[in-house]
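In response to the reviewer comment on reproducibility (Comment 2.3), we provide here a single inverse folding case reported in full, input and output, so that an independent group could reproduce the run without further information from us. The structure tokens appear first.
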């Protein structure tokens, strides 16, 4: 699951919407942090269009859909070039925060979702992790990139990661891929909770 992203700032004459991150973390985590800020701006302005873009499964079409989401006012006078894999996680995270906030939506009250026979790969992995460790998954997704909270949650999730990968699967995860996989699982599970456990109805 490869990802690429370029977000460059230029002098802004208007209101700042999504500043480049200057936190004291690695460049990779700064880039992730910047994408989180950008995604929050996009979701606030175009929530329905965001959901439609996330529903696109074809990589070339998904890239086009995500580029269409870009609003100049969310770039602070800069420009953004990205592929679908880089922005999916931040957008799912932003949707979760917009619709459910930082409060835990009651995962424990929902019966564990049963895996589908057709569900494979990254999506199945994320759903498995969410079933086994919903609270820690939520903590990881909502933590600031590179923060001690994120590192601690990631360490706590490692045994679950191993349990959720079948011997026949070979899944390669970067931080971006992990963001995308677990943020989608968190959002879908929260939507299911809000619809009484029926994810199909929620969709």
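Designed residues, in position order:
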């Amino acid at each position: 699951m490869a990802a690429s992203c370029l977000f460059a700032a230029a002098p802004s004459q208007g209101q700042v919407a999504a500043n480049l991150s200057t936190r004291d973390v690695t460049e990779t985590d700064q880039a992730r942090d910047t994408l989180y800020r950008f995604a929050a701006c996009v979701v606030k302005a175009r929530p329905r269009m965001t959901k439609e873009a996330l529903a696109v499964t074809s990589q070339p079409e998904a890239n086009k859909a995500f580029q269409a989401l870009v609003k100049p006012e969310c770039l602070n006078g800069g420009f953004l070039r990205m592929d679908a894999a880089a922005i999916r996680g931040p957008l799912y995270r932003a949707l979760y925060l917009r619709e459910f906030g930082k409060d835990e939506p009651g995962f424990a009250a929902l019966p564990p979702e049963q895996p589908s026979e057709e569900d494979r790969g990254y999506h199945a992995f994320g759903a498995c992790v969410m079933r086994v460790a919903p609270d820690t998954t939520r903590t990881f997704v909502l933590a600031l990139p590179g923060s001690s909270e994120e590192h601690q949650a990631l360490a706590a999730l490692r045994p679950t990661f191993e349990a959720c990968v079948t011997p026949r699967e070979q899944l390669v995860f970067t931080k971006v891929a992990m963001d995308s996989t677990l943020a989608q699982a968190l959002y879908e599970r929260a939507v299911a909770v809000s619809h009484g456990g029926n994810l199909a109805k929620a969709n």
